[in-house]
Amino acid sequence: MRDLIYLTVILPLLGFLINGIFGSKIKNEKLIGIIGSGVVGISFLIALGAFFETLALPLEQRQKIVSLFSWMVVGKLNVSFAFQVDQLSLVMALVVTGVGFIIHVYSIGYMHGDKGYWRFFSYMNLFIFAMMNLILADNFVLLFLGWEGVGLCSYLLIGFWYDRKFEKSTVAEASKKAFIVNRVGDFGFLLGMFLIFMTFGSLNFNEVFSRAVSFNVPAYVYGFIAIFLFIGATGKSAQIPLFVWLPDAMAGPTPVSALIHAATMVTAGVYMVARTSIIYASAPQIMMVIAIIGALTAFFAATVGIVQNDIKKVLAYSTVSQLGYMFLAMGVGAFSAGIFHVMTHAFFKALLFLAAGSVIHAMHEEQDIQKFGGLKKYMPRTHITFLIAALAISGIPPLSGFFSKDEILWFSFANSGLFLWIIGAGTAMMTAFYMFRLYILTFDGKERFGKDKHPHESPAVITIPLIVLAVLSVIGGFVGIPEVFSGEHGNQFHNWLAPIFKDADRKLAHFNLYSHSTEILLMVLSVVFAVSAIWFARYVYLKKPSIASDTAKRFKGLYNLLWNKYFVDEVYDAVIINPIVKTSKSFLWQIADNKIIDGVVNGTAKLIDIFSVNIRKLQNGVAQFYALVMVLGIVAAFFWIILSL
Amino acid sequence: MIITIEYYLILSAFMFLVGVTGVLINRNAIVVFMSIELMLNSANLTLVAFSSFLGNSIGQLFVFFVMTVAAAEAAVGLAIIIAIFRNKLTVNIDEINILKW
Amino acid sequence: MNLEVFLFFVFGIIAAVTAVLMITRRNPVISALFLILNFAALAGLYITLNAQFIAVTQIIVYAGAIMILFLFVLMLLRPDNQKKLFELNPKTKIFAMIIAFVVFVQLVYMIFFAGPSANITQDVSKSVEAGTIESIGRELFTNYIVPFEAAGFLLLAATIGALVLAKKKFD
User: What are B20-78's pLDDT values in tens digits?
Assistant: First the structure.
């Protein structure tokens, strides 16, 4: 089954082509949906088979390279279209194809009646193709191909309803913003790739990583490679300073937000850091930078999420915040904890978005939570699944979010000290608070919507994916039960991924200074924080909503700052975008383009014109003139003969 | 003094260049043709001079052919001038510039 | 001062002077007549070079046929007299004369300093022998028969060409 892993890449591409080329002719929506979901489902089964096959093999045989064809061979550069099937890529493949399949099935119902139905599924399949390329690649170039491909699909899918307005501007502007901000990050990624090739002479993972262990490379080179690659990750995974595209990406349909901006594309940066862990381990200062950026992103995104009123915006900032957690994990050296959180986050965040989509559909495309309220009696299944996801993301045991988030918090304390743990715990509290604010304002309390809205439960094709994801959110954490509880079994998930990170772990050489009791103490503390935050949210929004509005009025400045997301977009506009636009308009367009370049081109033509007008005069039709020229030639010839005598 | 070959050669060169000047200066096409004949004759003089001084008759044989060609060329050239004269009513070279750009 | 030198200078000066006069006259018929004089002087020069056959052929062909043709065409077309020499385009004409003078200087230089002509001495008997009709005819009809025939063709083509070009169009 591992040999067939290339099918997981090719089948979605096939789905894209079939739906893309023939989709507009196929009048049957169901068929389009079946083709679109079916290819992803088959890919999931293949990945599952490969997983079980790998599980049965001893450690040394667990990595397999399946090569399709040799792509570029230029001098030292040897890049092939080859896939690396090992523990890390299998985890990611299962998450992507599994959650992807669920979301595709959901979309069959959600996008019903849309005039671009076939276009949606073909773009989604293209996305899966690019994402699989990214995570299965065995070299940087193929990874970058997938990296760019998911950026492209993000643009296509965010801008799916390309003729609509979105907040103060248009959907088209939002998708453009996503693509351009991603591009800025990709530039950093390219620089990192160039540096890797210069230092190690190859772009193939196995070669680069083995040389990273054996070569004697100065530390600052690792630092530069690490920071450049991380810049790419901040763009793709929405960290400070390149996170600004993610809230705007909510302009796209909800399944897109679920798949791309919650479960898969945004985790590409985390995967990349995990894959290149040896390079990061060789640049410990950059790891600290990553940890700090991750923690700060998590904290500040959570503060913004508390005051947002659009259900998808809250979830978007929540995603940015949770991604911050994952980078915090990477930064402190807990690579498998970060990947664990990727997996559990995929479950409950996708569930949150899909449930939100169910609510949005039921409320006839209304997204303002101030106009919701009391929906739990109209949409029981959506309500229960949303609640489960909210509990999971808040870190309530024994749901999956508890295990993954707690492992991150524990490692940030054990490897880095109290400061990062405090930021992480504070963020966790805020996460629980805003999540339950969202839950209560939507499903609980008084009904605040008008008589024209008739909310009802969504059909099975929408609610069954919700139920599946809810089950996964509950049991998904049990593969990563920490040593504290499972004794000699150890942390299964951690052990599964340990061979991938063994070189990095060895370089980082973390010592286990703290005892189990400290770990349990911290765990209890974080649960207490979460529960108290949930209770406080209930108190404010169910019993005394006036507290919220009064606090907002009292701290008007702070509220304004948070509501306007710290004015980051406005600052970027003023400092970066407007100067560039102005320079382009005045200097680059009028002077460089019109005067200089056009001047050179037109000038060359004019020069040739003048030249030819004058040369033309040589042909005046008078034979004597030609004879004169001939005599001049004779003079020249005689001079030459005389000089050579 | 003895007449060596250089005397003949210099005379021939002089006649040749007088012919060239005649081609470049004159406006009447027929006079231009006569200058061309002058140039051909100067070449003949050179050939005969060398033939005589080297004792080889082949030079004079070649002069024979040059005369043949000169005759043919004069005939055809003058026929062309007559044909042009029929159209343009002039033999003035400056006015026969039909091949001007 | 023997006869040879005297004759060379007489004929040479006549040839040079008539050439210059030919190109500077306004009346083209006068130019043609000067050219005939030039040919006659050249024939004299050929005689001093012991080239008997060529001298006679010169008179017969050049002076007697080609120049007559020129005179016929002149009488047929009756072109206007040319303007004075430097009336039109003086700059071009002076430039042409200067160029021609430059070429003359180059040729003189090459004549004196280029070839082994200093070592050529005239063997009179050989030169006389070379100029006779017998020796020319022997070479012409044995080794150079093909060019001879080709020249015949050339003359045929020229005749036909001249006929076609110059005849009046019949409607």
Answer: 999 998 888 899 999 999 999 999 999 999 999 888 889 999 999 999 999 999 999 99
Are residues C104 and B41, on separate chains, in Cβ contact within 8 Å? Answer: no
Which residue of chain A is at minimal alpha-carbon distance from B95?
A622
Q: At what angle do helices A335-362 and A268-275 cross, to 10 degrees?
A: 170
Please give, rounded to a whole number of angstroms, the shortest distance from the CA of A621 to a CA of chain C: 16
- Rounded to 10°, the helix B5-25/A623-643 angle is 150
Q: Which of B17, B23, B28 should be substituted to probe chain A, the one whose Cβ sees the most A Cβ atoms within 10 Å?
A: B23
**Domain residue limits, chain B:** 5-95
How many other CB atoms sit within 10 Å of the CB of residue B26?
26
Chain B residue closest in CA terms to C122: B53
B16: which 2 tokens?
């040749």
Distance between CA atoms of residues C7 and C46, nearest Å: 11
Q: What is the largest CA-CA distance in chain A?
A: 117
pTM above 0.80, yes or no: no
Mark yes or no for CB contact B91/C66 under 8 Å. no
Fold designation for B5-95: Helix Hairpins (1.10.287)
From the CB of residue A442, how many other CB atoms can be counted at a distance below 10 Å?
24
- C149 part of contact set with chain B, CB < 8 Å: no
Spatial distance between the Cα atoms of B10 and A225, rounded to a whole number of angstroms: 85
Q: How far apart are CA A61 and CA A76, in angstroms?
A: 28
SS3 A24: coil
Q: What is this model's ipTM?
A: 0.91
Task: Establish if A629 touches chain C: CB-CB under 8 angstroms.
Answer: no
C100 and A641 within 8 Å at the Cβ level: the answer is no
Interchain proximity A638–C113, CB inside 8 Å: no
Distance of CA A365 to the CA centre of its chain: 26
Backbone angles phi, psi at A166, to 5 degrees: -145, 115
Q: Which two tokens stand for residue A83?
A: 């896939």
Of C85, C102, C81, nearest to C93 by C-alpha is C85
Q: What pLDDT does C120 receive?
A: 66
Q: pLDDT per residue over C92-147, tens digit each?
A: 888 999 999 999 999 999 888 876 656 666 677 777 877 888 889 998 999 999 99
- Judged by a CB distance cut-off of 8 A, whether residue A636 touches chain C is no
The token pair at A24 is: 């507009």
